[in-house]
Amino acid sequence: MPQKYVKKILDARIYDLAIETPIDVAPLLSHRLNNQVLLKREDLQPVFSFKLRGAYNKLRHLSDEQLAAGVIAASAGNHAQGLALAAKKMGVKATIVMPQTTPQIKVDAVRARGARVVLIGDSYDAAAAHANKLVEEQGLTYIHPFDDPDIIAGQGTIGMEILRQIPGDLDAIFIAVGGGGLCAGVAAYVKNLRPDIKIIAVESDDAACLDAAMKAGRRVRLKEVGIFADGTAVAQIGKETFRLLKDLVDEVITVSTDEICAAIKDVYNDTRAICEPSGALGTAGLKKYVETHGVEGQTLVAIQCGANIDFDRLRYISERTETGEKREAVLAVTIDEKPGSFEKFCKALRRRNISEFNYRYNDAQQAQIFVGMKVTSDDDRLQLVQELAAKGYAVTDMTDNEMAKLHIRHMVGGHAPQVVDEQVFRFEFPERPGALLNFLVQLGGRFNISMFHYRNHGSAFGRVLVGLQASKKDAREVKQFLDNLGYHYTDETDNEAYRFFLGNQ
Predict the structure, then answer these.
(1) In a 3-state reduction of DSSP, which class is residue 270?
(2) Is 284 exposed, middle or buried (0-12, 13-18, 19+ CB in 10 A)?
(3) Are the C-beta atoms of residues 58 and 82 closer than 8 Å to each other?
(4) How far is CA 327 from CA 76, 343, 381, 399, in A?
């Protein structure tokens, strides 16, 4: 099966538009991980991602009639930019359908390359449905972002370059997976020529469609998909890509948002390049692989596959980096409400650096403090918790508590004893003009809002924490009301962070 793709990859004629990207050593990561870490720099392509390769290869295989009809694609951005530039090079009209949540930098880049942009829906699936409708209405030629042999072969030229650029020892290649086109192309070429090299697929843990398919033995559609790594936010692995990947991938690794943010910082420290979240998946997976398998002295390559990121998102990424690097512990600690308690607590930290400290008076007996502290590792964090507990402090570790990191750390202000029967929910909704107002209009119709926290951090989705005054006997009605809103939500009424800092005790 891979042999067919090897020929298609060798026959790809893309280098009058795409470039052969370099492989750079990551010296800081290599030293820290005790392995030779190499980065395949696809962020240096003219469209700042690998997608140009597949799009251009596909256009070069179309007939004159198909080109004359004009091409269309649905894309969150990188495939769109690659297709737009390829179409401009070949003098072909291109229409790109993009979700309304697509980062503005990607929308502007597609338009700048001469393509017509249609913004519709909140997801790739909605954009793809509209693109297929335009194909039927206007006779356009549809260019799939990943599930197409010519697209896969175009991306596979990266594998060809890696083997040419690293003729010696190479132990594993770490590849981001969304729909699977990049991983399938690279794996098809590498496994045919060097079956000893491991192919490690990397997905964000909230959009792990390949991992789900591998475990089920068939393609499955995820009910929900996280969009922090928007370039790989795909609900179902491609049909052709899965046919290849199920036999060629050695392992699938999933990584968290915090681990992706930490990888973005690692890549920046070594290359001064700023990856988009999906572009750093390979590096995040490489780090996790080394940690979980304990490998040393190996040669490992991560494909740095994209750098199309809105500048505004860097604020959020920077916030999450410390916990992603396992260098910050986020704790809720109970101390006595009396003079000298703060000084006693600070002495108990034994000169550890404090990154954050939040407190507000609650009652005359005890105080709850929200504190962030610098640590060196997970083991160091656990040791810190144990040390504080041994000194008599009630400590709750909130380092992995999403509500604490997204909301509570920005709104520690004390309890509201006058608010009774409060239920708390965390929402996500598409971030676009008017979205917050629309959310408020829908939310405020039935129950009194007792708490509200919203923070825009440049992400494609807005995140809100809401308190609703409703008793437990109203639970069924509340659930029906929230389900009808149509937004993804999580019940946080019993979350420890809420109970410690905001709820009635």
Answers:
(1) helix
(2) buried
(3) no
(4) 32, 24, 8, 10
One-letter-per-residue 3-state SS of 121-180: CCCHHHHHHHHHHHHHHHCCEECCCCCCHHHHHHHHHHHHHHHHHCCCCCCEEEEECCCC
DSSP assignment of 283-350: HHHHHHHHHHH---S-EEEEEE-B----TTHHHHHHHHHHHHTT-EEEEEEEEESSTTHHHHHHHHTT
Which pLDDT tens digit goes with each residue over 73-113?
A: 998 778 999 999 999 999 999 999 988 877 777 788 899 99
pTM of the model: 0.80
**Amino acid, single-letter form, for residue 500:** F
Q: Which residue has the tokens 């998102």?
A: 313
CB 278 within 8 A of CB 51: no
Contact 154/56 with Cβ under 8 angstroms?
yes
Three-class HEC string of 425-456: EEEEEECCCCHHHHHHHHHCCCCCEEEEEEEC
Task: Give the type of residue at 12.
Answer: A
Q: What is the pLDDT of residue 313?
A: 82
Q: How far apart are CA 189 and CA 107, in angstroms?
A: 32
Write the Ramachandran bin of 359: left for phi over 0, alpha for psi from -120 to 50, otherwise beta. Answer: beta
Q: What pLDDT sits at residue 428?
A: 79
Q: Write the single-letter amino acid at 326.
A: K
Backbone angles phi, psi at 189, to 5 degrees: -80, -50
Residue 377: CB atoms within 10 A of its CB come to 11
> Token pair of 360, please?
């507000």
Q: Element (H or E) spanning 373, and its range?
A: strand 366-374
Q: How far apart are the first and last CA of the chain?
A: 63
Distance CA 87, CA 81 (A): 10
E strand or H helix at 244? helix 239-248
Full strand arrangement of the beta sheet holding 141-142 = 116-119, 94-98, 71-74, 141-142
Strand extents, DSSP E, 375-407 = 394-397
The number of residues making up the chain comes to: 505
Which domains occur in the chain, in start order? 2-49+169-322 (3.40.50.1100), 51-142 (3.40.50.1100), 326-400 (3.30.70.260), 419-501 (3.30.70.260)
The two structure tokens encoding residue 376: 């060196």
Distance CA 42, CA 256 (A): 22
Q: How many CB atoms lie under 10 A from the CB of residue 414?
A: 12
- What residue ranges of the chain have pLDDT lower than 50? none
